[in-house]
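In this supplementary section we document a worked example of the pipeline. Step one takes a protein sequence of length 350 as its only input; no multiple sequence alignment statistics are reported here. Step two produces a three-dimensional model, which step three serialises into structure tokens for compact storage. The input and output of this example are shown verbatim.
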Amino acid sequence: MTSTDVRKDAEDSGPSGYAAARLRLLQEGARSGPPRRAALAELTDDWLTGLFDAGADALRGVSLVAVGGYGRGELSPRSDLDLLLLHDGSDSKAVAALADRIWYPVWDLGLALDHSVRTPAEARKTAGEDLKVQLGLLDARHLAGDLGLTAGLRTAVLADWRNQAPKRLPDLQELCAERAERQGELQYLLEPDLKEARGGLRDATALRAVAASWLADAPREGLADARKRLLDVRDALHLATGRATDRLSLQEQDQVAAELGLLDADTLLREVYEAARVISYASDVTWREVGRVLRSRAVRPRLRAMLGGGKPVPERSPLAEGVVEQDGEAVLARAARPERDPVLPLRAAA
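The serialised model returned by step three reads:
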């Protein structure tokens, strides 16, 4: 059965048709990874658009928006649907009725739903107060209704994020650090949390947010492949367990490996650890660059030049003979002579 046939069945048969088409898609052995996630997102888009159109009737000034992971089109078999019903505030009663027409069919199918109903002003206000909401809105994607309303919110949220980056990025870094403290390093765990552990999918999403701020960017080499690998493992985990879980437990690792066509659990963990190392390294480099940029912005170059009689001099702290720390990195001291000091590279590496 083709993807067009699956979508047509979903559209023709309502919620039960969507459920059957979804099940067939997840059971297809020919499609996995990004193609299956994209097909699942498209199938869900079509179904939700049908619910919106049937409930909206002649209602204007309202749109349905996918946010978070669903906004990115990263639907795993047991992923939540993150939805925002956006409206201009002109008819709150009709919008509430429309929300019921959309939310209840989702609940009836037993799908997890994270939903909200807001005006653009309310969405921006909530985003300003809740960093997680703001991160979700950075991935907002229009599904149905007033495209101009969605586009206006996307533009405003992105502008807010970039304007507030000097304040919000340290908050995001602290959030990542607290999560890493709780969940540990993914690459060293026997039963890692693919999403929450350091080097997991949350960190990969945080790197996207940093890049969207235009303040710094992550090293690109291998990052997309690492993210894809963790998403593929999560898909297989959902299918193997039938649950919305991100914890790769020992008793499920062989089954997940088989789902992915890998030899055994050891091979699976090696691939997971390698992906985590790539994301962790990109996070280290990115947050160091964010810190450097924010520190440089905090300094008043003209005042320092006036007081010091010249250009601002970067702060350096001695680490070892011929090696100093500058902006969070180990660099050679100005007086270092590598050609005369064969042990210098070893001291720098240490």
